[in-house]
Amino acid sequence: MNKPTLDHIGIAVKSLDAAKIYEALGLSVNHIETVATQGVRTAFLSAGDADIELLEPSGPESTVAKFIEKRGEGIHHICFRVDDIEAHLGKLKAQGYRLINEAPVPGAHGCRVAFLHPAAGNGVLIELSEKQ
Ligand code: ZN
Which of 7, 74, 84, 98 is an S-S bond match for 79, by CB 3.0 to 4.6 Å? Predict the structure, then answer.
């Protein structure tokens, strides 16, 4: 297993128009994708080695819609790129960390992703992502 690297920071927004502030900073949206399994429309803005991922709920049942309802817009998760997602999940589970996804699910960019429970990350929702 290689060391994980920061892949992106996910920000829950009511609308992808939120990209404006990052565009004003000089970043640009380079990818927009609906991820049906996560109930979101995403926009990625490249910021050096890591991206900003804006997450717009695709409907009221989306977990991101519920997140915004409860906590308002803001940082939703951080994502680490890993090279062997199953090995990482197995290792974390063996150490007693709570996982939301015990097995990878399809994410944006065709990646395989899995979320750890926020209780495992001191209130921070951590995503692991393996590029195909
Ligand atoms: Zn993400």
Answer: 7
Residues with a beta carbon under 5 angstroms from ion ligand 1: 10, 53, 79, 127
pTM above 0.85, yes or no: yes
Strands 50-57 and 5-12: parallel
Domain boundaries 5-130, CATH class: alpha beta
Q: Burial, 40: exposed, middle or buried (Cβ in 10 Å; 0-12, 13-18, 19+)? A: buried
Where in the chain are the domains?
Answer: 5-130
What's the CA-to-centroid distance between 116 and ligand 1, angstroms? Answer: 12
Six token digits for residue 76: 């939703």
| Distance from Cα 125 to the centre of ligand 1, integer Å | 10
Sequence-ordered list of residues with C-beta below 8 angstroms from that of 13, at least 6 positions apart, any chain: 54, 55, 56, 68, 73
Average the pLDDT over 29-36 and give the result.
94
Q: Tell me which amino acid residue 94 is.
A: A
